[in-house]
What we know:
alpha/beta; 5-stranded parallel β-sheet; 43% helix
Amino acid sequence: MLVPRRMDPESGAVRALAVSPADDDCRALRNLLSQPAWWLDAVSCIAEARSWLTRFGPPPIIICDRDLPDGNWRRFFEETETLPRPPRFVVCSRLADEYLWAEALNLGGYDVLATPFDAEEVLHVLTGAADSWRRQWGQESDFPAVSALAAS
């Protein structure tokens, strides 16, 4: 289910990759991130995510379902941590609880989002993840559209 959304590279949009077999969750993220500040692609499994990463390079943010058809978020997270400029990794799950949150953060993930998604929480977490990634790896000019959102 690789469906790239084309954006003008000059727009300053933040690239994010959603890895989830749940079409409803991917559709919800697309709707929430339909602002020009975001460029979201979605794949359904780790194998497709690897292909995406090979083709496009690591994005600043990966939003990954806890359970995937070909593995789980921990396995994929460990792989992404070996990438140059590793992305901020956000785990999502219908069973988002304190255990998953503690596990994700202790392993180095950025945050956990509960599904179904809450629009305000998604935008807060992903804007924070983009800002965190930019502070560590990028320049202010890497995605000015999100910098403007964070400032407002």
